[in-house]
Write a structure and sequence with these properties.
The protein has 1 helix and 6 strands, in the order βββββαβ. It is mainly beta. It has one domain. The chain has a 6-stranded antiparallel sheet with strand order 4-3-2-1-6-5. The chain is globular, with a radius of gyration of 13 Å.
Length: 101
């Protein structure tokens, strides 16, 4: 299941590709956090599959994804296993990160 709450220590960022979800599978997708200098990460998709995640940020130890909006459960499960499914335009895909243990 996708995590719906940020919880203690978690900060939230958004994921997008030119703000056009319909083009998300063309990647790369850029992730950004509350402060640009806090987290620099890139997610690469190939043929709709999540094939790479690169995060460069001092102290960031954990990174997880969250789907916000009306998304069928099977689509959430598919994303969490590394396969990107088409998301409705009303949905947003976010990530959460923190620098704690």
């Amino acid at each position: 299941m996708a995590h719906q709450n940020s919880g203690p220590g978690w900060r939230i960022g958004k994921i997008g590709w030119r703000d056009k979800w319909e083009e998300a599978t063309r990647g790369p997708l850029v992730l950004w956090g509350d402060r640009v200098d806090e987290l620099t990460a890139e997610v690469t998709f190939e043929m709709g599959k999540l094939c790479g995640l690169k995060a460069n940020a001092a102290g960031v130890k954990h990174l997880r994804f969250v789907v916000v909006g009306t998304v069928r459960p099977e689509r959430v499960a598919a994303f969490e296993t590394g396969v990107l499914m088409t998301l409705a335009p009303s949905c947003s895909l976010t990530f959460q990160y923190h620098d704690g243990d």
